[in-house]
Amino acid sequence: MKNVSALTVIGNLSSTDPDSGNSFTYSLVGGSGAADNSAFSISGNQLLINNSPNFENQASYSVRIRTTDQGGLFFDKVFSVNVNNVNETPTNIALSANTVNENVSALTVVGNLSSTDPDSGNSFTYSLVSGSGATDNSAFSISGNQLLINNSPNFENQASYSILIRTTDQGGLFFDKVFSVNVNNVNETPTDIALSANTVNENVPANTIIGNLSSTDPDSGNSFSYSLVGGSGATDNALFTISGNQLLLNNSPNFENQASYNIRIRTTDQGGLFFDKVFSVNVNNVNETPSNIALSANTVNENVSALTVVSNLSSTDPDTGNSFTYSLVSGNGATDNALFTISGNQLLINNSPNFENQASYNIRIRTTDQGGLFFDKVFFG
After folding, report:
1. Which of 117-121, 149-153, 173-177, 269-273 has the lowest mean pLDDT?
2. Which of 300, 283, 301 is nearest to 346 (CA)?
3. Where does the UniProt annotation locate this protein (predicted)?
4. Containing structural domain, residue 47
5. Domain containing 252 — which CATH number?
6. Which of 248, 265, 284 is the last residue of a domain?
7. Are 265 and 281 in contact (CB under 8 A)?
8. I want to staple 177 with a disulfide (CB 3.0 to 4.6 A). Which of 26, 93, 156, 209 is the partner?
9. Are 294 and 310 in contact (CB under 8 A)?
10. Euclidean distance between CA atoms 158 and 7, whole angstroms
C-alpha cells in the first residue's frame, strides 16, 4: 500500500483459541513493538491506517495488537505493516540556466534538466512537447538531460523563447512545464560607417564641415565616437579633423593642387568595440576668376599700316584648360580704347600710329573665361 486514503482497511484480524466457538475483541495495546500504534485504529476485526502512508517517509510500521476472548483472557502479538513503494508522478522540472548569450554557436547547451519526484532513485527522459507555451519548441533540441539551442541566437531578432518540456519517469508517468529562455544582449561590433557627403568645393574656408558621420551597429541605442586612425588608406589623415560626428577639412582645398584625399576613420561604441573604414574625399573643381592678362608685346612702330597686330593676349587662371575671350572695356585706364580693336586673342591698332602725334596709349582689357568670370587690366604703351 502507498498513497491510499486515510482509514483504509489494512486487513482483517482473526484469533486462534483452544476453545471453539469463542468470540474475540481486538485492541492496540502498549508494550514492546507498539511504536506505531497511534498511526492505526481497529474497528471490529479490521485494522485501519489513520492517514495516507508514504513509502518515502516511512516504509514500515510496528503495532502491538491484543485479542481478548469473551472470558477476558487475552493474547498480544506484534505485527509489521509494510508500505509498498508505488511509482509516483514527477512533480517538477528544473533547468540549471535559462539565459544564453546572443551569437553563441549553433547547438550550444543552454542548461541541464533535472526532475523532482516523490520516488527516490527514479530515472527520467526529457522531451519537447506540444501544448500551451510550446511556441518556440522548434528552436531547441534535447540531448539526454541537456537543452540545446539549434541556431545562433540574436537578441535584436528575438530576445526570449517559450518552450514546453516533459519529464517522463521509467514507469511512464510524466510532468510538463513551460520555460522561458532569455537571450542576453551582448555588445556587438559596429559594421559600417557612413559619411553624409564626401565632396567639397575648392576654396572653401579652413575648418569647413565635409559631412556628418554615422554608424551601423547590430545593437540599437548604442553611442559612438569617431577618430582618424593610422593604417591602410590613412594617407591624408593629417589634413582633417573630427569634431563630434563631423568631419572637417583643416585648410582651404585647391582642386589644382589636390583633387582627392584618402582618410581612415574609426567608429568606437560605448563598449570599446570598433570598426575602421577608408573614405575618399573629392574636391569639386570650382571655376575660378582669371588672375592676370599678358601682352606678348606692348610696342608698335610708327607708320605701320592700319589694323596691324600689336600683340597676342594670354590669360593666367588657377583652372587648367579654361578658354578665354578678350574685350576692351570702359573704366579707369581706358582712355584710348577707341583706337584699338581685339580680334580673338589679338590686339590691333585701328589706324597707322604717328609717334610725333601720340607716343603712348592707355587701354583697359578684360579677359572672360567660359564661366563668365573676368579680370581687367590696364596697359600703358
Report:
1. 117-121
2. 300
3. Membrane
4. 8-82
5. 2.60.40.60
6. 284
7. no
8. 93
9. no
10. 55
**Location of C-alpha cell 583706337:** 339
Neighbour order of strands in the sheet with 140-143: 92-95, 108-116, 146-149, 140-143
CB 161 within 8 A of CB 98: no
Rounded CA separation 114/367 (Å): 93
C-alpha cell, 103:
551569437
Q: Which three cell numbers stand for residue 221?
A: 541605442
In a domain, 229, yes or no: yes
What span, in angstroms and rounded, lies between the C-alpha atoms of 285 and 290?
Answer: 14
| Strands, sheet with 124-128, edge to edge from the N-terminal-most edge strand | 99-101, 174-184, 160-169, 124-128
pLDDT on residue 165:
98
Between vectors from CA 93 to CA 135 and to CA 5, what angle results, nearest 5°? 120
Q: How many CB atoms lie within 10 A of CB 142?
A: 17
Q: Which of 175, 53, 68, 73 is nearest to 114 (CA)?
A: 175
CA atoms within 13 A on the CB side of 29: 13
Whether the CB-CB separation of 363 and 330 falls below 8 Å is answered with: no
pLDDT digits (tens, 9 = 90+) for 5-31: 999 999 999 999 999 999 999 999 999
The CA-atom distances, in angstroms, between 317 and each of 56, 197, 253, 269 are 104, 28, 16, 47
Model confidence over 231-282: pLDDT tens digits?
Answer: 999 999 999 999 999 999 999 999 999 999 999 999 999 999 999 999 999 9
Q: Are residues 32 and 14 in the same domain?
A: yes
* Same domain for 139 and 123: yes
